[in-house]
Amino acid sequence: MTRLRSDFWVSAYLRRCGVEGVDAALRKRGAAEAGAIFVKVDHLDGTASLYGPAPQMFLDDDGERRFAPVLRGVMPLDVEERMTREMRFDPDLWLVEVDDREGRHFLDLATEG
Question: Which branch of life, at top level (predicted)?
Fold first, then answer.
């Protein structure tokens, strides 16, 4: 099954956050068709979490994007440093930032089974 383009997915994700009353913003636009998507969640308490593409071994054949935690409950600067390294490795990635005290992210997380 074909996966939804990154630009369409990000647009729909930003809309979903808005509908749920959660502030979200596009921080970095990546490759429209297949750029990797990362989501930073600022918990507004001095901590943040980062979610990125799930490893391929946890993906189903349904074509849905799955995410995995990269960092959880760390200082926001730690997330920024990690994303700086990721952008050096993959300049075509997308970065979305969500601000939510409850840590809601609305992502489909990969599970081990």
Answer: Bacteria
